[in-house]
TrEMBL record:
Compartmental location: Cytoplasm
Start and end residues of each Lysidine-tRNA(Ile) synthetase C-terminal domain: 367-438
Signal peptide span: none
Membrane-crossing residue ranges in chain numbering: none
Protein name (database record): tRNA(Ile)-lysidine synthase
GO process terms (BP): tRNA modification
Recorded family membership: Belongs to the tRNA(Ile)-lysidine synthase family.
Keywords recorded for this protein, A-Z: ATP-binding, Cytoplasm, Ligase, Nucleotide-binding, tRNA processing
GO terms for cellular component: cytoplasm
Lineage of source species: Bacteria, Pseudomonadati, Pseudomonadota, Gammaproteobacteria, Thiotrichales
Length: 444
């Protein structure tokens, strides 16, 4: 429990770890909490002589008084001789999505774009905010990562996000503001209890404080303990991931994964997906991965999807990828003029000049590109080959096979990228040919 009389000393101790940064930003909304933070940091300028102090105000445009708030922040910063950057953002509005969460996302994205490498931004979340976050996460059924709530220090793009007030309560910050005779903005939406956080703040936490006066500190301590537990969980996940990973970040070895117990399987899959920068699945989606992908037979093609992600199995590997585009229709046909690149439903087709092999055709030849319908035959290496079996031999994952371009000349299949060209059109030794290359994003 900290006394605001020592707030300056506390801030100096934190900022001492970032002496190399050229600029310190304060996220300034104009409300009580951020005004206290801005004022306290402003008093430290003699000790921050080598660092530039600036404020940033995010204009969400959601409140009728948003323009006035921006003007107020500019005036306060001018009085403190602190440059203030006003950034307007567009907040996504969508049904069944939290406007509050979308505003927060837009705010952090804007600040992230503002920060140069290793610059610091200070935000004013305090102990009561942390307590509210812990309760919200608990009511949502969060695990240790969620219950760790807001970390005191975290990366934000190439800079640092620091929350120096997490050990101070709203009451303490109010006392500081009164003593310093600060004037701040009161956002009327903060009293609207239709928002979950406001409901907790105005209806639930005051009743908890009547019985347990130190509830905010207690819940903040819980967050610290959960952060420590999460660090241990992540350490174990990294150990297991090193066992289960392959040479490709987007693949996981199923034999190694199956050797782990169920809890560690869930843990390492979450860790793997976070390393791939994918949205983390819900508990139900994670359970579906374990129940449908791990025990699948070799001829099955299980897939588990959630927004932005598909999980698939092939042989003894688990793949994570972006959602596939619609499969080409059986009747789809594209015209390709050598050697211009050709955009495909998945990736693109290119031709590279090469000596002694490839397709022996002049530049400008018009070819047709089709996709598998079934029953295709390819004359290659002295035999009539069934394309389906060739693709199986190539060990091309099943979900890629409908997208592989089959190259025709006058209704004859003359080339398949990654396999070869028809015997009669193969460039002989000493002559140049075209090597066909199918290029597609690595996460497929």
């Amino acid at each position: 429990m900290n006394d605001t009389a020592n707030l300056g000393t506390h801030l100096v101790e934190i900022l001492r770890n970032y002496l190399d940064t050229q600029r310190i930003w304060v996220a300034y909304s104009g409300g009580l909490d951020s005004h206290v933070l801005l004022h306290a940091v402003a008093q430290l300028r003699p000790q921050l002589a080598e660092q530039e102090l600036r404020a940033v105000h995010i204009h969400h445009g959601l409140h009728p008084q948003a323009d006035y708030w921006a003007q107020h922040c500019q005036a306060v910063c001018q009085a403190l001789a602190i440059p203030c950057e006003i950034i307007r953002v567009q907040v996504r509005r969508a049904s069944r999505e939290s406007l509050e969460a979308n505003a927060r996302t837009a705010r952090y994205q804007a600040i992230a774009q503002l920060l140069s490498p290793e610059e610091v931004v200070l935000t004013a979340q305090h102990a009561d905010d942390q307590a509210e976050t812990v309760l919200l996460q608990l009511l949502r059924g969060a695990g240790v990562a969620g219950l760790a709530a807001m970390p005191p220090v975290t990366r934000l793009a190439s800079g640092w996000l620091i929350r120096p007030l997490l050990n101070y309560t709203r009451v303490q910050l109010y006392a500081y503001a009164q003593q310093a005779q600060l004037q701040w903005i009161e956002d009327s939406s903060n009293t609207d209890i239709q928002f979950d956080r406001n409901f907790l703040r105005h209806q639930i936490i005051p009743r908890l404080q009547q019985r347990w006066p130190s509830v905010s500190y207690t819940l903040s301590r819980t967050a610290r303990y959960q952060a420590e537990a999460h660090e241990l969980v992540q350490s174990l996940a990294q150990i297991d991931w090193e066992t289960c990973r392959t040479n490709h970040l987007t693949q996981l070895n199923l034999m190694a994964l199956s050797a782990l117990n169920l809890v560690r399987q869930r843990n390492v899959i979450r860790y793997w997906l976070s390393q791939c920068q994918c949205p983390i699945p819900s508990s139900a989606q994670l359970q579906q991965i374990l129940q449908s992908c791990l025990p699948a037979k070799i001829d099955q093609q299980p897939v588990v999807c959630w927004p932005g992600v598909e999980i698939r199995r092939y042989r003894q590997l688990l793949f994570v990828m972006s959602p596939l585009p619609p499969q080409p229709m059986n009747s789809s046909q594209l015209t390709w003029l050598l050697p211009q690149p050709l955009a495909l439903p998945l990736g693109q087709l290119t031709a590279v000049r090469i000596q002694g092999r490839g397709l022996a055709l002049p530049s400008g030849t018009a070819l047709q590109v089709r996709f598998r319908q079934g029953g295709e035959i390819f004359h290659w290496r002295g035999h009539q080959r069934v394309v389906k079996k060739l693709l199986q031999t190539l060990q091309l994952p099943p979900w890629q096979r409908p997208f592989i371009p089959l190259i025709y000349l006058n209704n004859t299949l003359v080339a398949i990228p990654q396999i070869g060209v028809q015997d009669e059109l193969r460039a002989p030794a000493g002559q140049a040919g075209w090597e066909m290359q199918w290029q597609f994003p690595a996460d497929y």
